[in-house]
Amino acid sequence: MTPPPTTPYRPLDITVPFPELRGYARTATRLHPRPGAPTAADSSVGGPLLWPEDEAWPVCREHGRVRGVRPLRARRHAEILRAARARPRRADGAGWAYTDAERAEVQEMSDAGHQPDRHDGGPLPLLALAQFHAHDVPDLADFAPPGKDLLQVLWCPFGGHEDGGFSDFGPSTRLFWRRAADVTGPLAEQPEPPVVEHARYLPEPCVLHPERIVEYPWADYLPPVLVERIDAWEDALQERAGRAAPTYQYDLSLAPGWKIGGWDSWHRTDLVPVHCEACGAGMRLLLTMDSTENQASWGPFPPVGSPTGVAAGRDEYRAFVCPADPAHPHRMSTQ
Ligand SMILES: [Zn+2]
Ligand SMILES: [Zn+2]
């Protein structure tokens, strides 16, 4: 049996040279999603949700006629790709070893792709993206409203929504908190949208291997004098150890990959603080979705590709929530 993925030891403890960083430490739960067969009782990405059978499934009403990819077709395509990649590559260097039947099927799909499937208006059922039980994901407790222990995330698998101000770059997400014990009659067959804008908005069913770690902030959150000292320390380390020297940004502060809690990375843009639209409070990072967790010394061995198949926004798609009131709307941000 494959051992569960865990974070390799940090190359060094950054709080030894910089004890003042301890005041900025935050825990995060890395989720380490891996393809599997989660049930509605499990924490998962892309698995069935523990949804009450007497509660209406949420829909998006912002679209008229839309075109996209049928989930069934996208899943079959992913399945063929996985099978081909599991075989040795072709000896003539011409790529993945598809069988003739698979090649014909992929060709047929790509021909059909020129006439995308349609949804002819009407409410579009949201897509179940993930659910997290507090007993699996310890950092969820920092965010859960009183009495709630299950977070469910759904999204509309199309971009171009008005809500949140930030979400023109990705799907519109909805967060639902509930008490798992309240769901006595769970919904057996959950609805899904007939089409999704991109196959990368369709999560591969993954089980989670939650692991709690400690993170330190993105440098722009630290006092400039401290950052100057960290920079000088890195330069000295690099002089001694060369390119193998760990760096604060890539090795010693923030973990890549799917996680709950922790600190937010701003590697693509300047830091843009996220504020609550209802009360103006600075918002706190709840969920990070990431296309990969292979980064510097944080990556698992052997490296994984993108187990969930989900890629939204740029590299990361993050949900921020209001620390003052969990009922205030969350906001999405990308890096
Ligand atoms: Zn929508
Ligand atoms: Zn607020």
Tags for this entry?
335 residues; alpha+beta; Hypothetical protein YwqG fold; 6-stranded antiparallel beta sheet; 21% strand; globular; binds zinc ion
Question: In short, what is this structure?
Answer:
The protein has helices at 71-86, 100-112, 224-241, 248-253, and strands at residues 26-30, 34-35, 44-45, 59-60, 65-68, 117-120, 124-125, 127-133, 150-156, 172-178, 206-207, 211-215, 259-261, 284-290, 316-321, 331-334. It is α+β, with helices and mostly antiparallel strands.
Secondary structure elements and pairings:
Blueprint: E1 26-30, E2 34-35, E3 44-45, E4 59-60, E5 65-68, H1 71-86, H2 100-112, E6 117-120, E7 124-125, E8 127-133, E9 150-156, E10 172-178, E11 206-207, E12 211-215, H3 224-241, H4 248-253, E13 259-261, E14 284-290, E15 316-321, E16 331-334
Antiparallel strand pairs: 1-12, 1-13, 2-11, 3-8, 3-11, 4-7, 5-6, 8-9, 9-10, 13-14, 14-15, 15-16
The chain binds zinc ion (2 copies).
Can you offer a commentary on this structure?
The chain has helices spanning 71-86, 100-112, 224-241, 248-253, and strands at residues 26-30, 34-35, 44-45, 59-60, 65-68, 117-120, 124-125, 127-133, 150-156, 172-178, 206-207, 211-215, 259-261, 284-290, 316-321, 331-334. The chain has 335 residues and is α+β, with helices and mostly antiparallel strands. The chain has one domain: Hypothetical protein YwqG fold (Roll). The strands form four sheets. A six-stranded antiparallel beta sheet has the order 12-1-13-14-15-16, with no helix packed on it. A six-stranded antiparallel beta sheet has the order 2-11-3-8-9-10, with no helix packed on it. Strands 4-7 form a two-stranded antiparallel sheet. The mean pLDDT is 91. Residues 60, 62-63, 124, 156, 158, 161, 172 line the site of one zinc ion.
